[in-house]
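Case 884 in the screening queue. Each case pairs one protein sequence with one candidate compound; here the compound is HT7. For every case the pipeline is the same: read the inputs, emit a complex structure as tokens, and attach any notable structural observations.

Predict complex for case 884.
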Amino acid sequence: ATLIRREDYCAPAFWIRTVDLTFDLDPAKTLVTSKMQLERNAAVAHGALRLHGEELNVLRVLINGESVSFRQEGHELIIDNVPDADFALEIRNTCAPDKNTALSGLYTSGGSFFTQCEAEGFRRITYFLDRPDVMAIYTVLLRADKAKFPVLLSNGNLLDSGDLDNGRHFAKWHDPFPKPSYLFALVAGDLVAREQRVRTRAGKDHLLQVFVRRGDLEKTEHAMNSLIASIVWDEARFGLPLDLERFMVVGVSDFNMGAMENKGLNIFNTSALLASPATATDADFARIESIVAHEYFHNWTGNRVTCRDWFQLSLKEGLTVFRDQEFSMDMAGGASARAVCRIQDVRALRASQFPEDSGAMAHPVRPDTFVEINNFYTPTVYEKGSEVVRMYQTLVGRAGFEKGLKLYFERHDGQAVTCDDFAAAIAAANPGSALSTRLDNFKRWYSQAGTPRVQARGVYDAAAQTYTLTLKQHNPATPGQEHKLPQVIPVALGLLSAEGQALPLQLQGEDQAAGLERVIVLDEAEQSFVFTNLASQPVPSLLRGFSAPVVLDDGLSDADLLVLLQHDADAFNRWEASQRLALNRILAAVRSGSALQLDSAFIEAMRAVLRHPELDAAFKDLALTLPGEGYIAEQLEVVDPQAIHAAVEAARSQLAQALREDWIEAFEANQIQGGYTPDPVSSGKRALANLALSMLVLDAARSGDTVWPGRAYQRFKDAGNMTERLGALSALVNAHAELAEPALARFHELFKDDALVIDKWFALQGRTPELDGKSFARVKQLTQHPDFTLKNPNRARSLISSLCMFNPAAFHRADAAGYVFWAEQVLALDAINPQIASRLARAMDRWTTLAQPYRSAALEAIRRVAAKPDLSSDVREVIDRALE
Ligand code: HT7
Ligand code: ZN
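Case 884 output:
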């Protein structure tokens, strides 16, 4: 395996200006004819033409119509004698879509053809300069059996279509926009489409189509509505219009990720596309809206302006995640619903990116090296990358950010560029701003891995009526980066009186207070900020809205946190206070090794949240949900997953018992009459009702009460939508109630023909909190279930990843059986689909922090995987990094 370095970037020796592709589609052996127009890159020294190609069978190579000699070395096809002048290159090759279980390149799924070319899948279709800085104009002719593949799609506009001999037909497509090969796509199959015509602000008409398998059409309404909302939003917020006459979206059930932004032909995992109230939860509806938006937004941030090389991946991914997060917030509506979105995003960041940043695979937002680029589609590149973009906006303001983005497109439309180009455009559009004056320092967010720690301590001087806030930052060492330099950390803050009143913020040297909230910028290792005119000691509310992706140690007491929980104007920090209060108690129990006993101050604070007449249900649900076990583990130097699980279970069961009457009240008060809509208010109510029900069923397991398990079972049977049905089923299963078994059997029987719902059935069992080894045993047994297969990524993830990545107490077993299971599954998956295997391999990223006996057992399992000689480069890189 070769280590690729960012600093070794060289421009390509040749440009490919146009490509004419002809596909004679056959599942067993597809014939690909590629006619390209090439020219030498004058800026690069003369040399051979080296094309990428993998798993291909080359039939002929012609230059200007004449056969030429070529060599094949590894994954390259090399032509030594190439004319200096522009020339035509024709290559004919075959590939085998039916055998392509890696789902990269051209493959079949459910009898139809699909492609996935990002990052390096195009080279598994034909020989090419498969790198994002080579942008060409594509014309694509598809030929296939008409009865089996009545729909033939590719990027851009349909030029022609018609019948051929032998029951075959053709379609010819042309994409007028130059694009890198990773944005190429084709689809051929027996599909049907929901269609909608829209007119954009410029008065242009566009055809929107969502293609799915017959029978799934009624599940595409939400995706279509989400697409229309995305088009409207991008024009209104950033002035970015739809630039194609036709925009197509296609669903496929075998897919490695959520979706793919191919120009004009987005391809979606059906899990990120199909929804009906009966089969999808509120969370599914929200996820679909956000992924449809994300892929659509890529049309500008990724497709019109793309990445020069894969190290710049966050240029498009961080920016596009930021855009989809902003979209979801704008769609959610009022301040409270926006805060709920923000809390959910931060919770996800902390659950996945923070552990990554302190584990074996830690890497900067713009990595410096990789072996396998597929391993770098990570929470760091995506979610931390989005936080970096959010900080630009915080530092230059919303209007300044919009100006910056406009300049970025003016400068770079049609180009393949770098994160530096993006930073330069935002800064140039905002001269003299808090960003432009510190740009070099700010860019350390791209180059330094690790989550900075910020310590904040305040000293109140009663005589001077000042409050001196001292902030210190420190970024711990990460693999390959021992010493870090200070980063630019925008800290949004407010000060509250002990009674909870917001205080005016006036810094020493200022004539007057500048409102009740402001952003101060920490850009040195240590800085102090003196606030004046304060009549009493304030309670600081720092890092409001999570204004930077850091770990904050503010040293606040329980009393301070209770003030924030009750009164902070910033809903994010109110939620943060609830989590901190819970976390402090759980950590104290785990650290001391004693049984957790919740105190009445905490219980009453939680009761007050639950009973609060003005707080939204969605917020209450988030505040009353305890921190995840993975996030708790992150706070500890030595991690005992069983001790953490025991403390969390104790906290849940005590909250369930102590607030029983309030849970009943919350359950009853949050019932929704009438039809289902996935709007934020209704989904918030359903979330709180589901939480309440789970607490009541949990408490029943303790008390022996049969009423609430019975009610849960009834609700499970009668539910009119999947959110309530799955909520009731989860309540029974997670509490290990007796009624869980009949409910699981009934659920399977009801939905046995709906793969996405059966994925939920597997996932629920994969994530069931451990009790006496039953959950682990259940997962092992389920691998033998007739519906289980490792070949479908959704199914593999639903069971195996649920256990290994999201169920720590069932996975980390003293007898090491969880790790043995992990090793077996990684190896089995690697032979089928290296990308999915390598994601599962990452379950061991944090093994060095485990307490004994887990640590030694984990190491043994990792070594067992490492010992396999023919591991994919994907898994090899992850395993090697774990062992470094
Ligand atoms: N840009 C897309 C990335 C993607 C992908 C990458 C590697 C292997 C398979 C893949 N499928 C999609 C997804 C996105 O960020 O929108
Ligand atoms: Zn993306």
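Case 884 observations:
- The pocket of zinc ion (ligand 2) is lined by residues 294, 298, 317, 320 (CB under 6 Å).
- Residues 307-447 form a domain with the Neutral Protease; domain 2 fold (CATH 1.10.390.10).
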